Amino acid sequence: MPKPMFAPACWSARRGAVVLLATVLAAGLAGCAGTGERLSSMVTPYKVDVVQGNFISREQVQALQPGMGRQQVREILGTPLMVSLFHGDRWEYVFTLKRPDVQAQTRKLTVFFKDNVMERVEGDEMPSEAEFVASLSSKRTKAKVPQLEATEAQLARFPKAAPANPAAAAPVPQPASSYPPLEASRR
User: Fold this and answer.
1) DSSP alpha helices (H): ranges in the chain?
2) pLDDT of residue 7
3) I want to staple 50 with a disulfide (CB 3.0 to 4.6 A). Which of 98, 127, 142, 170 is the partner?
């Protein structure tokens, strides 16, 4: 019968060491709980703006006229976000803008066709382009633009450059008035 590698007394000593190590780690992590909360409140992750779909402005909707073909509508509004296989006579335009700390904006527009010609348009009230751009204003204030012009006191700190003496300057060679031919003539 083979002998066990470790004596039973050794097993209980190891078990005790593992329990002691686990207890110390748990106590250490419990002590860090307050620090972790403070650290997480100081560090804020970057949250990206999520834009989905086509922005449709009031001006674009006003440009649509009943009787327009599908290609004309596509040139004005762009490719629709959804075209249903079951409803081939309508295009769905959905626009969603999700920004951190701002309520999500969602706008929907449906274009109905009959015999490949636009019949009518239904949907939300669309903002003008200027209204939409104004709604995108950020919470961040614009940084003050620094003054880019030096004062006389700031300029006085730098040494004055010696005035250029035109007589001491080397003469500038004049370009040649005629050039040799590019190829030698063959006769």
Assistant:
1) 8-31, 33-42, 58-63, 70-77, 129-135, 152-156
2) 54
3) 98
